[in-house]
Amino acid sequence: MNALLLSALWGVVMMFSSFLVKEKSAIRNMAVAGLVLLLLVNILEMNGKVFFDINTRGMIYFDRFSLLFNSIAFISTFIYFILSAKDMEKVGDNYAEYFALIFFILCGITLVTSFKSLLILFLGIEIISIPLYILTGSDKRNLKSNEAALKYFLMGSFSTGLMLMGIALIYGAKGTFMTFVPPATVKEAAQATPASALLIAGMILLLFSMSFKVSAAPFHFWTPDVYDGAPSVFTSFMATIVKAAVFASFIRLFNDAFGAEKSQWQLLVAIITAATLFIGNITAVFQQSVKRMLAYSSISQAGFMLFALYAMNGDGKEGLILYATAYSLATIGVFAVLIKLKDFSFEGFNGLSKNQPILAATTTIFLLSLAGIPLTAGFLSKFYMLKAAMETGQNLWLVIFAVLMAAVSVYYYFRVIQAMYFKDGDVSPDLTVSPAFKTILVFLAVLVILLGIFPGLLLNWYYF
Amino acid sequence: MNYSQYIALIPLLPLAGFIVLGLFGKKYFKQSAGIIATLLLLVSTALSIYTAYNYFFIDGKIDGVYHSVIPLKYKWLSFSENLSIDMGILLDPIAVMMLVVVTFISLMVHVFSLWYMKGEERFSTYYAFLGLFTFSMLGLVISVNIFQIYIFWELVGVSSYLLIGFYYDKPSAVAASKKAFIVTRFADLAFLIGILILGLQGQTLDFGVLIQRLTDIQSPQFISITSASFIGFSVMTWALTLVFIGGAGKSAMFPLHIWLPDAMEGPTPVSALIHAATMVVAGVYLVARLFPVFYINHVSLQLVAYVGAFSSIFAAIIACTQTDIKRVLAYSTMSQIGYMLFALGVSGIGDEHELGYTASMFHLFTHAFFKSLLFLGAGAVIHFVHSNEMKDMGGLRKLLPITHIVFLIACLAIAGIPPFAGFFSKEEILLAAYNSNKFIYGIALFTSGLTAFYMFRLYFLVFWSKTSSAHAHHREGNAAMKTPLVILAACSILSGLVSFGKYVSADGKEIESHFHLVFSIAPVLLAVTGICIAVGLYKNESGKPQRVASFFGVLYKSAYRKFYIDEVYLFVTKKIIFNLIGRPAAWIDKNIVDGLINGIAGITADISSAIKGIQSGKVQGYALYFFGGVLTLAIIFIYLWK
Fold first, then answer.
1. Which of A376, A422, A459, A463 is the mutation pick for testing B, counting most B CBs within 10 A?
2. Which of A437-451, B337-351, B408-422, B575-589 has the highest mean pLDDT?
């Protein structure tokens, strides 16, 4: 609750600050300060200190899962700000507004990780989506950016329609918006009624619209265009933090509302997962631009995160926490380096190791983590996911397929490493990066390795 | 004996070398990097030998049985009450033997490289990589659980990737390193799935407990893993097969061997270390580690035996035709590893039957010495003539006297001529095969004749044949080069005399190794025949080899082209996978996704037509796909409805 209110408040503050504050560095500092504050109040709430206690009639409920996810989102955003906030200046003149929009998105994130009512879920998803449409189109003079925003908006509206339809059907079936209604009596609990067709129809509509939001196949078509068209700084944000948060809500929704029907939707989710892994990985192999490759890689990584939904057990949730963190940190790192380069193609990375050894080395670690090489966070998170899926005891083919696809992913991630180390080239000789930027990248790389060795550092927060 | 006081130093010293040289090597240790790394490894080697001495002679044996000792262990990840992943050190006969082999061969390679790599621009980087590799390999052999072995397994893969691609300005080296990494990585993924299954079914990843549970036919884990089945085979067979695929990938067994010949692009001392003595035997080591489990599952053990036997003869035939000195050695390595694997495959547990296990480890031990000697000798030759092709060599015996002698010793050892090391280990393998599987024995016998032939073909082509003196101005090399060669040659002669069965066996008990004089006649005669043919064909330059080659015609040609396996892989990946799957995916991307972007980019000059571009049906197309997806999945869902 703390973070929910503060993020909305800070969004408004940031919005008005553009009238009062002209200095860009001051705006930036304000945003970073706001984020630190957000993180602080959220951690206080994890320790039981709630400042605002609003009666939401049980529609919003913060548990460990949601609070931990919020913290991860805030920490990732914090790292993202200090790495890339300066690069937002290049996008356009409305510097303060970009931050305001990001704070609104964070507000939406706190909603979608903590909802207990479908209405709140819908509100949260929309609060996230609308600022994202704007951020995608924020490079106003760039046709590609406009185009992407329009496309995103149209497709997004389409999926929102599905979602509303689904919610309406479920309301019709259950008579309530609450995701989980505890049975009134023991007797009622014992004789669980079979789910009605109305409820099931609503459920699969929700499944599709959420699949769209996390860019699972076959609802992924918007992703490459939008990620490619949007200004790179914002692609970084939406491909990582936003995606991870929507995954959290996806899990939460299916765990609470449709846990009982698990046997019905499990195989369908397995099919979606396999399709997502397949399309993401195979298409990524053929990309010529690293930015576009990362867009497809985000699809394939989403495929792995879908394992948590498929397995829907304790290991899966732990795995998702670890996966979301590992993926967000590594991708933010790679994007931060990518933004600094002029040329987004693979050739653009040629010889980076000679000019900028630190950038090249840290990028290598991020890519190794994304590819799932041991001793990085990416490996352990994949391991948790596969283990969770194995525990269900069914559909072994999915695990085998996923592992095969992970092997394919090595190919395209290593292309970047190969370009940096094994190819000659003059990577933007005028490329200048501040020592602070390098320090943070190194810190991020250390974090990725630390989590790969001691995942307990993160996962212990989930308990006690 | 309290091993824990120092045992961790054995792998950590090379790691320290890697960190120090990797971070500061270029600045501060440009010249001294080699000496520093060598000294660190010298300490490691001394500690390993000390450990082996203590383990084998002082306190490893309790009531006549070698037990495993776990001097160090700490909990790393805990999943549940019972299932956790530990990190630690396990000492048992094979682990201790491998410690000695790895550190010793690595030390020889370190010393040899002082001469071989001298003047390289990235001299310190080279030693840093060697340190990383040695660390990973040592970590692999002393792993206490199957997950730890996997982590070091991957690290070994990464460090060998770095070493193979060391000459990164050579495109073929870069391609080879990538090929090695990707091929073995695919195999490793099978390994990972196997680990997951074993861990989940066995409820533990610890070697000791896992083996105990999966070999006890009363235990619930054993019952559950054998009763469940998948496409006709029990889950246990699947798990072990997957684990074995991982091992076969690293050990370059057919059909996953394609990376090994290409990996010869790396510096030659690296080949001696990685592709002769250490990394490539990891697969053998893995099977040996889980041997009791393999033994109880007949199908997977048979698979090991036949894959090993087939690879050994397959590689031997190819080796007879290759012209690149290192590739001959690469195929010979593959063939010898095949020996080790089928020896395991025909082995059993218990007094008489476990000869195969001991023989396999014995051959691993002796092979490490003579094969690394062959590679280092080849390195000396290559350094001398600046070519890998045997046609550029010939008549080198006067110019490289030391190399010539040690190379001859190694050739005799690998050919199995008594009293050289290879003779003893190979005899044991043949005997084990003879006792349990006559078919494999036949293959092995024939292969041993072939081995003698191709090794002496190599020997005569390099050191005799022509009487060229084109390189007379070169000198053979300094002490750093000669010392390791001479030491390894001594080992190639003497290591066969170790009564190996006393120390290493499947159940820890001593086994009697009988020496059957009569039995040895056939293989030795075959080997001598092989050598005689090689003498006849290659001792003096003549047209005979060509005539023999044309006599064998198609067989020769296809063996020369390595039986077209690479082409098959290329065909499958390029033609089938890329065309059938990749192309359509790329087509969608290019025509639907890119087409849109290109369409927009082309119209930037004219905004109105850009709007037209957006309205030209593409977004609607997306919506259509979306809708199609909804419909398809909904239909699937209804179909799946229970």
1. A422
2. A437-451
Q: Which of B241, B597, B616, B631 to mutate to test the interface with A (most CBs of A within 10 A)?
A: B597
Low-confidence residues of chain A: pLDDT under 50 = none
Taking phi over 0 as left and psi of -120 to 50 as alpha, with beta for the rest, B190 belongs to: alpha
Task: Give residue B76's pLDDT band: very low, low, confident or very high (50, 70, 90).
Answer: confident
A316 compared with B180, residue with greater pLDDT = A316
Contact A390 B610 (CB under 8 A): no
Do A282 and B185 count as a contact with CB atoms less than 8 A apart?
no
Query: Which of B122, B7, B101, B123 shows the shortest CA–CA distance to B54?
Result: B7
Whether A158 and B581 lie within 8 Å, measured CB to CB: no
Spatial distance between the Cα atoms of B68 and A374, rounded to a whole number of angstroms: 27
Host H or E run for residue B62 = strand B61-62
Q: CB distance A158–B626 less than 8 Å?
A: yes
End-to-end alpha carbon distance in chain A = 20
- Nearest Cβ partner for B637 among A268, A287, A407: A268
A408 backbone dihedrals φ, ψ, rounded to 5°: -60, -40
Q: CA nearest A293: which of A308, A303, A283? A: A283
Q: Is residue B562 packed enough to be buried (19+ CB in 10 Å), middle (13-18) or exposed (0-12)? A: buried
Residues 6+ apart with CB under 8 A from B579: none
Three state DSSP letters for B185-233: HHHHHHHHHHHHHHHHHHCCCEHHHHHHHHHCCCCHHHHHHHHCEECCE
- How many alpha carbons fall within 13 Å on the CB side of residue A426? 3
Tell me which chain B residue has its CA closest to the CA of residue A155. Answer: B623
CA dist., res. B79 & res. B68, Å (int): 26
Instruction: Count the Cβ atoms, other than its own, within 10 Å of residue B82.
Output: 9
Test A267 with B640 for CB contact under 8 angstroms: yes
Strand ranges (E), A40-128: none
CB contact under 8 A, B181 and A315: no
Cβ neighbours of residue A117 under 8 Å, at least 6 residues apart? A58, A59, A60, A177, A178, A179
Task: Find the residue in A nearest to B188 (Cα).
Answer: A407
> What is the amino acid identity at position B341?
L
What are the structure tokens assigned to A44, written together? 């206080």
Nearest to A422 among B165, B603, B636 (CB): B165
Task: Name chain B contacts of A406, Cβ cutoff 8 Å.
Answer: 189
Residues of A in contact with B581 (CB under 8 A): 282
Chain B neighbors of A265, CB-CB under 8 A: 637
Distance CA A109, CA A107 (A): 5
Residue to substitute from A223, A262, A304, A383, interface B, most B β-carbons within 10 A: A383
Determine whether the interchain pair B189/A403 forms a contact, defined as Cβ–Cβ distance below 8 Å. yes
**CA gap A105, A108 in Å, rounded:** 5
pLDDT value of position B86? 80
pLDDT tens-digit profile of A328-368?
999 999 999 988 887 788 888 887 877 788 888 899 999 99
Q: Shortest CA distance to B162 belongs to which of A353, A419, A372, A422? A: A422
Model pLDDT, residue B574: 58
Q: By the 8 A CB rule, do B414 and B336 touch?
A: yes
Residue B597: pLDDT band (50, 70, 90) is very low
ipTM of the complex: 0.79
Per-residue pLDDT of B436-459, as tens digits, reads 888 888 888 888 888 888 888 888
Shortest CA gap B617–chain A (Å): 12
Can you tell me the distance from the alpha carbon of B208 to that of B294, in angstroms, rounded to the nearest whole number? 14
